[in-house]
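User: Can you help me understand a structure? I only have the sequence.
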Amino acid sequence: MSSAVVQRAHERAHLNYGWLTSRHSFPFAGNFDHTAYAHGLLLVNNDDIIGVGNGFDTHQHLDTEIVTWVLSGSLVHQDSAGHTGVIHRGLAQRMSAGTGILHSERNDTRRADGTRATEPVHIVQMWIPPDESAITPSYQELDVNAELDAGGLIILASGMPAHRDHSAITLHNKYAALHVARLDAGDSIILPDAPYVHAYIAQGSTTVEDIGLLSTGDSLRIKGTGGHRMRATESAEVLIWEMHAGFR
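Assistant: Let's start by predicting it. Here is the structure, written out as tokens:
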């Protein structure tokens, strides 16, 4: 049965801790089964703004593919497998928790290059499950600004065999792909045609064929249909999951 459901920005759960403002597309805080609320394979879609000198201290993940996308500012990553890096706008980043990994994510005051952070960091963090449990933890990042500036929809992260030679970074799930586009007003893209599609308007506004206007913080959950045309009504940045499997 096909469906297309819009979740408006004001309908998402909102947490404000002072140092962190977070909006959740799916239930996140508390003890519950993420899969019960998933759309396709997408378990988490958190939009976080983290103040200078603050962040998520060291914590553990298991059997999760975590993709972090920076909208503004920069985020310092460190993990127990020895990976470190500063994630900035246009840098695709994936961490596979596998058998277990500890990591921290902070808008640290001092950067590795000696500069100092002066602004909050704004990120979208997304989780999907891996194909197999208990894989070796791993980390990957790649700057895709040049590809984004060229226009159109690019494959940011994928484990799908058809995308093997076209994806910026790899996911350990052969049924999922994450696409991203930076659009100028008037630009358009075609949403993937897949059993499950999740389109998140990270910035700006768009119209979607047969759906209507989607603005910053809105998302579209499509099931059993696809191929809709999305057109930017102003400069926009969109994150689109294409998923060929689901939990139910």
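Now, to help you interpret it: The radius of gyration is 17 Å. DSSP finds one helix and 22 strands in the chain. Let me know which part you'd like to focus on.
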